[in-house]
Design goal:
CATH architecture of one domain: 2-Layer Sandwich
Largest sheet: 3 strands, antiparallel
CATH class of one domain: Alpha Beta
Mean pLDDT: 85
Oligomer: single chain
Number of helices: 2
Length: 84
């Protein structure tokens, strides 16, 4: 009787694990964003729009933003090179 109970328990747990993993679809993964300090933007960065324009027009990145204590301009793009 004990062996039968263990066997039924093992089969039931295995079935539950199988159903739980089968119903989980592929996770939507956000693309990684790479950023680098702008080589063109000079001075402290107070305007996100100016930083983004410099990054797009002169450094061929997707966008840019100001951050950090020293308010530096960082250019951003997808790490895999795909469209953002």
């Amino acid at each position: 009787m004990k062996v039968l109970l263990r066997l039924v328990s093992a089969v039931l747990i295995s079935f539950m694990l199988l159903v739980a993993t089968a119903t989980m679809g592929p996770a939507d993964v956000e693309p990684r964003i790479c950023e680098t300090l702008s080589k063109v933007f000079k001075g402290m960065c107070w305007n996100q729009n100016n930083c983004a324009i410099m990054c797009r027009e002169f450094e061929h990145f997707h966008s840019g933003h100001c951050r950090g204590f020293l308010r530096r301009c960082y250019c951003t793009k997808r790490c895999d090179g795909g469209p953002s």
